[in-house]
Amino acid sequence: KASHGRIKYFTYQNYLNEFDFIWDTFSKEKVLKGSFDKFVQSDKQKKGTSTVDHEFLTSLDTWRTYLANNIALRNTIDEDELNFVVQHIIDRLIFLRIAEDRSVERYGNLQDTIKSNDYYRNLLKQFHAADQKYNSGLFDFSKDKVSGKIEIDNKIIKSIISDLYYPVSPYEFSVISVEILGSAYEQFLGKTISLSKSGRAVIEEKPEVRKAGGVYYTPQYIVEYIVKNTVGKLIENKAPKDINKVKIVDPACGSGSFLIGAYQYLLQYHKDYYTNNGKPSKGSKDNPLTPDGNLTTAEKKRILLNNIFGVDLDANAVEVTKLSLLLKCMEGETEASIATQLKLFHERVLPTLDDNIKSGNSLIEVDFYDSRIDFGEDRKIKPFNWKKAFPEVFKQGGFDCVIGNPPYLRMQGIQETQPFSVNYFKSHYQAAKTGNFDLYVLFDEKGFDLLNDKGFMGFIQPHKFFQADFGEGIRNFIIKEKALTEIVTFGSQQVFEDATTYTCLLFLNKKKSNQVKVSTVEDLKAFAINSMNVKTFTTTLPKENQKWNFITEAKQSLFEKLSKQPKTLKDITRKIFVGLQTSADKIYVLEMRQETDKTAVVYSKSLDEEVEIEKGLLKPFLMGKDVKRYEPLHPRSYVIFPYQVSNGTAQLMNSDFIKNNFPLGWTYLLRNKKELEGRENNKMKGEKFYAYIYPKNLVEFEVEKICTPDIADKPRFTIDKSKSLYHTTTIYSFVFNRDLGTDEKYFLGIFNSPLLWYFLSFTGNVLRGGFFRFKTEYLKPFPIKLIDFENKTEVEQHNEIVKLVDQLLQLNEEKQNQTLQSKTDQIQNRIDYSEQRINEI
After folding, report:
1. Which side of the chain, N or C, has fewer Cβ within a 10 Å radius?
2. Do the Cβ atoms of 102 and 178 come closer than 8 Å?
3. 709: closest CA among 596, 649, 624?
4. DSSP state, residue 398
């Protein structure tokens, strides 16, 4: 219904008031400038709306559930067969239903199967007829030994086919693009069907998908950018006879989005070429264009078979890729054009793609089997022989183009889902020799190795390998090969919907070069519409054994100057640590209300009331929001801390000690007994109390330290001069070596200056909205200028910074207590001056 999908509603009476919106969004001039696209993308969660891919995914999931449960109930079948047959039935139904809406098949053909007798047998007859017409492999029953032997209840088939037609179906299949189907299918493929002990079908997320945090379907604009900058460069100004030799592969093709993108680019290029070269389009079978100026089916098949290749570990993904490519190949066909091919040229409409799209493990060759006799679970590894699979490709030295979105899975996930493969990776890939690695870096190395000596590679993947220790292997591999040609980064902007994954586009090729083009996308929405709002510069390749910081030469100069400092934060700190972690904050973290000499009245979230507890059982406790730039620390909470600290160790108080020395606290714990019982690391059994704080960082707090929230949008460091404040895990603390002779406030001035922020912008983890995460691995390498106390000038600079920091701590406290805006502004002017002077020094 229109009321479900509409996002604005006007009657003619509103036109004058809404004229500006209507004109700016829908007028021809504005639409040509992208206004409508911007409006559509401005808020994808508009009330009452749903995107086609999400709705179609819901339908796919429903049909899979119906079929899986019924087939498992009615037949003796194993898991692999069940997944195979469910996938094939759905793929075949969708193909034929789309063919109907595109007028390639008679509308209502599938509905004829649910009019009488055994509906599934009727459906199989249509599938066999389709094999004679399309020859796509999709309907190849010489390889499908399962579909013909199973039974499915009529009500299941009727329900699914009814879902495909008006008025139940909301889809107009003639205009749903292959790309939208692919988006839905990619999510669909993230789940698998397994059988319970009782034989019931259970649909669950694949282990590798769960470990990777979900399925990352690549947006169309990213696919198009990568294809244009790889395939586009390969075929530029070439004639079709030369393009005939170009071989393009996606080694982790999934639902086929990158191969569809590459195929579409090739189709458009050929159509433009033939048109620009004035080729006649009438007459014999061999002409590449139809009378209306489109590519003939024969030409589309030729391009598909010659140029497009793919591999995926998931056999069902391979079938979906084939389906998507065949649907793309069939675009523009009609019932009449297909009949002509069948009658006039005696050839079936579509090619079989079995030699182009294959299932196997792209990263593991058949040498995996060396010295193995008992394979056990190794059958799940599916080693793949690239040269045997694509012999013609490797006769010309390899692929011309490797593109895709490789899987994102950390080594821990690989060990759980593919335990047999880890040792193989470590012995075969330089990228895995760091000991810890992510699967995508192995695809980088493999993708590059698959290229011939003039080949191009383009991937979208996380950029964490720029800086992370696990990325050293692949960084060195790429630098040694002088393979890096372009990097596109997106900062904290999210390319993938519903995921927090910071990505880049990585372009490699075999033409060795010392220069790298670096592009930063400043506005993702503008980039999605027309690849605009990109800042670009060229820099030299990083060196081996270096982390990657892609910055302009001017910034590089400053970065190198920083890097020449002999000492880093790691060298001068005794400890960098996070705070206490409880497993029940609402019980143990209490809001301050009122104090006496020996007790404190606090608010307990678990009891939703104020209680009184002895101060000897409590520690003043900072939360992340309590730590602000140059502001004195005023904790607003306590934490129950049942430990006795002595000589650098913490000993848990036993139950009797708490009961005898802190009766109010013991009473409070007893009142929470029900919630505590049965919790790991957080227990009460009878009258016994057990540890509730995870055993780390229990004894570090009662020293002078500099503190910062773990996530911030600017430097928010301050100092704990009281030497008494404990804090939560969302705060980092720095304790400095005692023999430096340097005042901690000197370091505080450096931390809050733009210098640390500048350094972190190239080495740290940028989050949404320009926030940084202050992890120790990013903080430890920060270069520190230590003071030479024999140098009068440096001593004067040190002392001035310390004095200015003292002033800032005092000014910020005064500012907190002001009630008049005029006085607040006056204090702020002095704060600004002091900060500016520190920055100058």
Report:
1. N
2. no
3. 624
4. S
In order, the DSSP letters of 490-539 are: -TT--SSTT----EEEEEEESS--SEEEEEEES-HHHHHHHS-SEEEEEE
484-489 and 515-521 strand pairing: parallel
Question: Can you list the alpha helix ranges (DSSP code H) found in 662-791?
Answer: 663-671, 673-676, 744-752, 754-763, 776-779
CB 113 within 8 A of CB 126: yes
pLDDT tens for each residue of 758-815: 777 766 666 656 677 777 777 888 888 899 999 999 999 999 999 999 999 999 999 9
Q: What are the DSSP calls for 531-562, one per residue?
A: S-SEEEEEEEPPPTT-------HHHHHHHHHH
Mutual angle of helices 315-330 and 297-307, in 10-degree steps: 150
- Per DSSP, helices labelled H in 331-410 are 335-344, 386-389, 391-395
List the structure tokens of 362. 């792209």
Instruction: Name the CA dihedral angle for 193, 194, 198, 199, rounded to a multiple of 10 degrees.
Output: 60
Between CA 365 and CA 371, with CA 368 as vertex, the angle to 5 degrees is 145
The secondary structure of 137-170 as a DSSP string is STT-TTT--SGGG----HHHHHHHHHHTSTTT--
Strand partners of residue 373: none
Per-residue pLDDT tens over the stretch 280-338 = 545 455 678 887 788 888 899 999 999 999 999 988 889 889 888 888 888 877 667 66
Prior bond of 167 cis (ω within 30°): yes
Q: Give the separation between CA 222 and CA 396, rounded to whole angstroms.
A: 29
CB of 593 closer than 8 Å to CB of 610: yes
| Host H or E run for residue 592 | strand 589-595
Single pTM value for the model? 0.71
**Single-letter amino acid, residue 199:** G
